[in-house]
Amino acid sequence: MNGLHAAMKTSVAQASSSEVQDMINQTMTRLRSLRLSGMAEALALQQEQPGTYEGLSFEERLALLVDQEDADRSNKRLARLLRAARFKLSATLEDIDYEQPRGITKSQMATLVTCDWLRRKQNLLITGPCGTGKSWLSCAFGHGACLRGLSTRYFRTSRLLEAMGAIKSVPDMLGFPFFKALTLQKCSEQNSEKS
């Protein structure tokens, strides 16, 4: 057994620094072709700053690569969701000013912030006089939903009603299945009451 072990040790050749660099370059190219650009960037960073990572084990360095890939994908997904939502305003739930008289309490907000109402396929209708922050709140709720990985789409009421009216006969044109005339009528009545 010792003879076999000794023979295995001697058969392993030490790679030259140029061979190691070629292998790393090939690995980064393969990571990018596999669409693992976050891992490729993290590996490049590890190569640029060897002193920072030299004390880490292989497993720890691999974990850092995987963490970077996960973070990279999460950031890209969030950016994609926010772009698709087409928010009118840049608003976040963290920026809500509870001193403003909006008729909503912190406990109500705590319930709504979880976005459980979206998972239960419920709607959130925000009403109020002009200038009270309805658009701002809807953008903030939408941003919160995007942070939780949920797709959203911002519409002004008038544009939503126009779109719903245009698609009565084609209910999936907006990507929302089963819009019914009754729903359109209720939204129209709600909008008329405010005018």
TrEMBL record:
<dbReference type="InterPro" id="IPR027417">
    <property type="entry name" value="P-loop_NTPase"/>
</dbReference>
<dbReference type="Pfam" id="PF01695">
    <property type="entry name" value="IstB_IS21"/>
</dbReference>
<keyword id="KW-0067">ATP-binding</keyword>
<protein>
    <submittedName>
        <fullName>IstB domain-containing protein ATP-binding protein</fullName>
    </submittedName>
</protein>
<dbReference type="InterPro" id="IPR002611">
    <property type="entry name" value="IstB_ATP-bd"/>
</dbReference>
<feature type="domain" description="IstB-like ATP-binding">
    <location>
        <begin position="29"/>
        <end position="165"/>
    </location>
</feature>
<keyword id="KW-0547">Nucleotide-binding</keyword>
<dbReference type="GO" id="GO:0005524">
    <property type="term" value="F:ATP binding"/>
</dbReference>
